[in-house]
Amino acid sequence: MLRPLSRALLIAALSLGYVAWHGHWNDAFAKKHGGDDGGDDSGDDDSGDDGGDDSGGGDDKGGGDDCDDDSCGDDKDQPPVTSGGLFTMQTYPVNEIQRPLTMTQGITQIRAGLGTDLSAKGAFNTFGVNLEAQYGYSDNFTLIGGLTDAYNFKQFGFYFGFEGALAYDLLDIRVAANVHRNAIPEYQNFCSPAATNDPTDTLMDGTINGQATKVDTLVDPSRCATPMASLVNLPDGNYEAGGTQFSIDLGFPFRYAIKPQVAIVALQTLMSIDFNAVSRDHVISTPTMLTDTTTGVSEMVTINTATKNGAKPDLKPSIGIATNPVPQLSLVVFAQLRIPDFDTAAGAFQVPVTGRIEFSPSQKLDVGLEFTLLNVKPPTGQSPIDNRFLSLFMQSRFGK
Fold it and tell me: Residues 210, 157: contact at Cβ < 8 Å?
């Protein structure tokens, strides 16, 4: 009873805190950008309208003291950054680093993606599709939602929430309700280096440390066709569905441009507050002494067992770097640390690293690729590049 109540109080406190800050920020923003000239919004409009009359010719091109060329009279030639950095579709930057963290009021962005498993032993065996959306409810408050899936829907996430500016274009708060589950990979022993006449590992039902699990029959590396070969324990391309959880995801998206073309990005996610426990959520790896069924030789091998995720928060901080070598091309690399149940002693760390390349031919369209190494800190015997995922995406913006 106390645990759900404490979570509810935490979520309510976060929401109320944001609403209070949001109102304070709006007032400060209005004063800063609406009162710089000593008047209200109408004063800015009057100064622009009167400029043509003061020139004596009634021509918009010669109206203002700051107009040095004909571009001042043509909306499409206005500078890309508008007052306060609030963009419209006509002024929305092609350069991703110059884009605001939140969508401008009235602008919607739709993202669709198609992905596939590219792991060493399971490439192109499974696929997934994503559909996500962002809508600018106000200039610094965005509604977010989407459906993501992978591994033939053995893994999915359905989320809805908001992202709002705490410090405009520098720091946001992101809160989303998320119904999700993870795919559980099946592992087998493989000979390394591989040969065409290597024996096949067959998984058999067994018990290790009192827990039912799949046990490998290929344990003795001397059975491999290549002399002096070793055994590696890798996902074989087959997946099972884990348990479904309901969580509140919390993040503080941060971006700081250290140079005009380079920025640090961080904390798109920080933690997930789980509301229920599941018995199968992620895999832990345990070195175990087993006996080969053919030779009778005992060897130390890795056993991967699906384990639970309790009704406790999970730690999920992220950090990366973004760069725009040319305005139309964006390169982003970011890593995330995942620690289920905040249990730093459980040995269940995962560190996925994603590289994204994005091309923006116009203000309304982006196309790109994301390549993810699912765990660059894998169990002993696996390489950081063995488990991979690739996705192709397209996103489009429309609105005012």
Answer: no
Q: State the distance between the two ends of the chain, measured CA to CA, in whole angstroms.
A: 47
Task: Report the sign of the C-alpha dihedral through residues 271, 277, 278, 279, in that order.
Answer: positive
Q: Which amino acid is at 375?
A: N
Q: Is 71 helix (H, G, I), strand (E, B) or coil?
A: helix
The tokens describing 49, both together, are 């309208």
Report the amino acid identity of residue 126. T
Nearest to 132 by CA among 116, 123, 118, 143: 143
Angle at alpha carbon of residue 108, lines to 140 and 389, rounded to 5°? 100
**393 within 8 A of 130, measured Cβ to Cβ:** yes
Interior CA angle at 343 toward 246 and 249, to 5°?
30
Average pLDDT over residues 236-265: 95
Three-state SS sequence of 154-219: CEEEEEEEEEEEEECCCEEEEEEEEEEEEEEEEEEEEEECCCCCCCCCCEEEEEECCEEEEEECCC
Secondary structure E strands in the chain: 107-117, 127-138, 141-150, 155-167, 171-192, 203-208, 211-216, 230-251, 254-259, 262-266, 271-274, 278-291, 298-309, 314-315, 318-326, 329-336, 353-362, 365-373, 388-399
Instruction: Give 88's pLDDT tier (boundaries 50, 70, 90).
Output: confident
The HSE-up count of residue 242 (CA atoms within 13 Å, CB side) is 27
Query: 72 vs 367, which has greater pLDDT?
Result: 367
Q: How far apart (Å, rounded) are the C-alpha atoms in residues 80 and 72?
A: 13
pLDDT of 344 reads 83
Written as one letter, the residue type at 225 is: A
Say if residues 86 and 104 touch (Cβ distance below 8 Å): yes
Q: Quick one: which of 361, 322, 353, 349 has its CA closest to 336?
A: 353
Among 159-173, 198-212, 261-275, 291-305, the range scoring the smallest mean pLDDT is: 198-212
Question: Distance between CA 364 and CA 127 in Å, rounded?
Answer: 27
Instruction: Give the confidence band of 305 by pLDDT, cuts at 50, 70, 90.
Output: confident
Q: How high is the pLDDT of residue 87?
A: 82
